[in-house]
Amino acid sequence: MLAGAIALVAAAGLTACGDDGGSAGSGSDGGQIELTIGTFTEFGYEDLLKEYEDLNPNIKITHHKTGQGGPYHQQLLTKLAANSGLEDVVAIEEGHLPDVLDKPHLFNNLADIGPSDVKPERWLDWKYEAGTAKDGTWVGYGTDIGPLAMCYRKDLLEAAGLPSDPEAVKPLFESWESYFEAGDTYVEKTGKAWFDSTSQIFNAMQNQLDVGYVDEDNKLTLESNQDIRDNWDQVTAAGNRGQTAKLVAFSPEWNNGFKQGAFATKTCPSWMLGVVKEQAGPENAGKWAVTDAFPGGGGNWGGSFLAVPKQSQHPKEAAELAAWLTAPEQQIKAFQKTGNFPSQVDALEEPQLLDFTNDYFGNVKVGTLFAAQAQKVEKAQFKGPGDGKIQENATSPALQAVEKGKSPEDGWEQAVEAAKRIAG
């Protein structure tokens, strides 16, 4: 991955950071310490938190889990502003991380309070750098990353006379041009949608650019970056040709769309595998497949960090928990449960990861597949403050408006105006 980082330099081995489980709570008075951790959607931590409590009898953990990332991060920023109510350990998604890095004084520097054997070399270079504020504060330990692949329904492609084998489909997904061309064929043959929503496709395209919605000077890029507009025009045109199922991601209708075969392809960062399996259900096992081809060569969509706010009453113990959860062994376990792909250098060489197969997707070696996709990412996209809000509250609603009949041009103006309000 990555900017030379996946030259896979040797990091501190898999035994680093509290792997013996005995360090948490050290230096306390020996009484039980209560820690809280806040996450959203699926981090795969439920069993791991119980394991940590077993390893550290003086630690009691309460897990606050929110269903969707948008409301979670809005609450997080509200609690930060009020300087009250935050958990000891908080998860932060990469799209919302800039809003946190802009306030490093509200977080503990993990370089100061974290276990001494947890070094930046544990992570891919760009993942570590993404969690560090401009003033040098190490705000967040990296959890997962989201290397992109393509998921698709084999039976639906076959019904349209398209190839369905994971190798044979690669030409369809070689570029965005070939992807949308295949979509036209699919729509013509079946009369059904090729993908779930224009906003999901647009988000994947956007995440392939070097700079997100806000640049390093905190300036909005929608009007200045022609690539964003070109992506907009391309995806809305495909949508208007019948390729979109017009579903809002993570809505009940979208969830049901997996079961009903409402669309044939799905942009699949690694964490999406768990979503597909859960929503499509056991009745569709073996119908879904995943290939390491992706239009434009790949990219990263998603991934999070664990941070310790200054509000924590037990910052040292909180940092020890966060460090343990983001150790390679634990992140591999989380991947095996949810598909969240590890960001730790050592994890990417582990047979436990590389040999891991997913029976729901035809017993493909998803560990090896996503490790290869990860290596196509050269650096993290720069995201300025408000990036995640722009995606959720500007471009996605505007694309949904286009799906409901608004012209692509008017939709673009809606997105730009909403983004301006968010960016201030």
UniProtKB/TrEMBL annotation:
Entry-linked Gene3D superfamilies: Periplasmic binding protein-like II
InterPro entries assigned: Bact_solute-bd_prot1, SBP
Pfam families with a match to the protein in the record: SBP_bac_8 (PF13416)
The protein's name: Sugar ABC transporter substrate-binding protein
